[in-house]
Amino acid sequence: MVETLSNTKTEHEPPTQSRSIGVLVFVLRYDDLLAGDAFALPPLARSGATIEIHRAPRVQPVSMDGKTLLLPDPYVSRSHAVVARAGHEDRLEDRGSRYGTFVNGAPIDAPRPLADGDVIEIGHSLFVYRLVNEAMAMRLAAHPTGLAHGPTRTLCPEVVQLALDLERVARTDQPVMLLAETGAGKEIAARYVHEKSGRAGPCGAIDCGAIPGDMIEAELFGHRRGAFTGAHEERRGRIRSADGGTVFLDEIGNLPEAAQASLLRVLQEREVTPVGADRAHKVDVRWVAATNADVFAPGARFRADLRTRLAGYVGRIPPLRRRREDLGLLGAHILAKADVARASITKKAARALLLGELPGNIRELGRALTSAAVLAGDGAIDVQHLSVLAAREASESGEVSLSPSDPEETSEARKPRQQRPDRAVIEGALDKARGVQGEAARLLGVHERQLARWMDALGIPRGRARVR
Ligand SMILES: Nc1ncnc2c1ncn2[C@@H]1O[C@H](COP(=O)(O)OP(=O)(O)OP(=O)(O)O)[C@@H](O)[C@H]1O
């Protein structure tokens, strides 16, 4: 019997007595998206605790001086705002600043009680307010710049807790089930489990939604030569290839029923029988499965016994709209990876990008930020550079087809088709990538084939010949 652990919570869980300590997180400044200098301010644990927010000289880094936060932001007034704990409540008050203080996009004109998840703009600096329990407050106070999770750090209490749980569970043999929306970081979390497990074998990822239903068993379990038409040679399959390591089953809800039954046998017997073979092979793998919660939905076409087997520990990765405190760290990581040397963003664009819904989560943030940075060049990212967001809005309003017609695009099939950006964006990406199409496609956040189609449509020559 597998014990079921879980970090799952409902989306709108009310703050309870145990989540009563306020923590303000400095997320980023719009004039330096690469700084990655986010941190949690000291917790507002006692009645009477205050944090004053003042402007600092421009050259100075963002810093705390006792109970005062100093922001080197010209849009912050000399004495701009204060957060004060009164009883069980934290209140934010503007001190008559020149450019105002905003909570969730609206200016405040009187002391404003803060609620968990509130997004605060002071000048061109962004903050998120969180209510946490005492243990999390102590953890954030001990690690004010966040905890490592995958390639970045996290300041989001839910992700901090998830990372700690995953690290603990990784050392056991418990299968892990990750629940998350698309692009929220399931594969990153699965690789984190593998890394922390200390397993010597590889981490093999399988997107169960991208493999045709009649091929999935051969792909997972391998096959003998001649087992079916086209099986010209024997193959080990993905599970045996990850022997000694981790198998990450993404989009597990898309596994056909017959394959579910075969997979259940593999989990029970710890052996794999290739398609067409009569002999089983022992395997030693750690299982991580991921789903958009569909396997738990009432009436889901997913075997309850397999679900129970896979759900040893159930971890929910919050969507980006519930972890805005990580926008600064994620943004800096994304831009640094795309070799962007400096990047700033206007307030209007920041609101569209950082405070918007971003249903494609971190993947969508990555696409939007990198292509906008390419288009903005040396200037600040402005709303007209956010063509990826415009493309999504167009696709949601039906202007862009959501049904892929290219059979080669199977793995992209569930993702909205991208609207073609301007020629300047495509050429900018190609220049930045020194003509390497794969790299330019990565910068634009699209598949290389998509970029090739756009280049053909615009008459941009392919290959390195175009490097200037
Ligand atoms: N903690 C993180 N730090 C930095 N980048 C991240 C993090 N989490 C996710 N990403 C980036 O966001 C993108 C999506 O992440 P990932 O592939 O793990 O998500 P997913 O939920 O598995 O996506 P999908 O639903 O499309 O399979 C990737 O480019 C990944 O590098």
Automatic annotation (TrEMBL):
Biased composition (Basic and acidic residues): 411-423
Pfam families: AAA_lid_14, FHA, HTH_8, Sigma54_activat
UniProt domain FHA: residue ranges: 51-108
Domain Sigma-54 factor interaction: 157-374
InterPro entries attached to this UniProt entry: AAA+_ATPase (IPR003593), AAA_lid_NorR (IPR058031), FHA_dom (IPR000253), Homeodomain-like_sf (IPR009057), HTH_Fis (IPR002197), P-loop_NTPase (IPR027417), Sigma_54_int (IPR002078), Sigma_54_int_dom_ATP-bd_2 (IPR025943)
SUPFAM superfamilies: Homeodomain-like, P-loop containing nucleoside triphosphate hydrolases, SMAD/FHA domain
Residue ranges, annotated region (Disordered): 397-423
Superkingdom to which the source organism belongs: Bacteria
Alphabetical UniProt keywords: ATP-binding, Nucleotide-binding, Transcription, Transcription regulation
UniProt-listed PROSITE patterns: FHA_DOMAIN, SIGMA54_INTERACT_2, SIGMA54_INTERACT_4
Protein name, UniProt field: Sigma 54-interacting transcriptional regulator
Organism for this UniProt entry: Polyangium sorediatum
